[in-house]
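Take a look at the protein record below and tell me what you see:
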Amino acid sequence: MFLDSANTPPTLSSSELQSLSRISLLACAIAGGVTVFAFAPFGWWPVQIATLSLLTYYFIRASRPRDAFMLGWVFASAFLITGTHWLVISLHTYGGLPAWLAIIAIMLLSCCLGLLYGVALWIGARIALRINHASLAAIAIAPACWMLADWTRGWIFTGFSWLATGYAHTSSPLAGYSAIVGVYGVGWISGVVAGCIALLLHTGHLQRTAVGLAIVLLGMGSALSKVQWTETNGSLVRVRLLQGKVPQQMKFDEANILHSLALYRDMITEAPADLIATPETAVPLLSTQLPENYLESLAHFAWENNSTVLVGIPWSPAPGIYFNSLTGYSFAQTTPYRYDKHHLVPFGEFIPPGARWFIDMMHIPLGDFGRGDLYQAPIDVRDQWVLPNICYEDLFGEEIAAQISAAIDRGSPEPNILLNVSNIAWFGDTIALPQHLQISQMRTLESGRPMLRATNTGATAVINSKGQITAQ
């Protein structure tokens, strides 16, 4: 138990310690499970502050590092299971895995990722036991450890930062910190606010420092939300974002492929615009398998109507090689534009070493893409430079920031609009869709740039530089 030096630790029997451990683990499991309500589509961000406060309260009362490990692991595992349960749909409904195996796979994934949080709090407990100071444990050590676990989850095994703590705050007072410290920094500040509340619960009396710190952090975040970090640039552009709403079970079905091709060709050529964008793999055939003159007809439309057309397509530059790509045709360019996805989804877009047996059990088409370069040029749309990313890539704000920085360092045109094209019909009509929209909102808050989203069944939307959805 971490106590301020002025306090005297109480004496508890072994049976009382065991009872406390069982109660705390159950409480953390429930708290972790309900934390999903802090994120989209619910958006009840105070829930996260409350549940992290409970976790921190038990953390500063833990008498052994292994107890802290269990608290963090149980909380995080329960949160990830409830927050990403929709992965079962892609594995079972569309991937063909038996339902029981898909459920086990998601639980194993969540519990393995939960170990990161358990280990982080174990390390934090070892430090805190040496310091023996509850205030530092609650306000400094626990939030820092939690943030480091979030950050590690964002890159280990290629990264899965879905539902990182900071994403809950795209509309909270803490959103103002996004442009300065990013999503992980926002999560850390959320943990500090939660630590202040936990300290009040722990001591049982008013802690002026803790109350003052929480108020200052929330107030500063609210004030920073009013700062305009970037300026508008260039002329207005007319945009058409297309949503075909092709059911996933039909998307790659041979009987419906020609229908999909005709659907998107008709949608693209229905009316001109400065930018017309389709979702990811709107064209479900390899570029080498398309009907004759299909892409040429789209290019001709773009050139004849002073438009720029971006089409999601699996591109095959050579036999046996293909990329998840976005190909573009513009009246202002004589050569086609192409963006190749570089951050691929494990099991869905590339096969990790030793995982071929698992992939063979599923029926996911185009499951082994090549990787595009990290630094790829934006496309010019009437003096607005649009930087695409494909689906899962907008989880990695540090990579988008690196692309923007690289353009500035090289003296190349600086991207001033982001474009995400996605096909998340793999997850049905679940909370994954608004969660993905919220991720895009965080990218706009971090970068100070608006984002356009063209999705097959998700939230096709326009998000301004303040993270606000202006059209959907």
Observations:
- The chain has 14 helices and eleven strands.
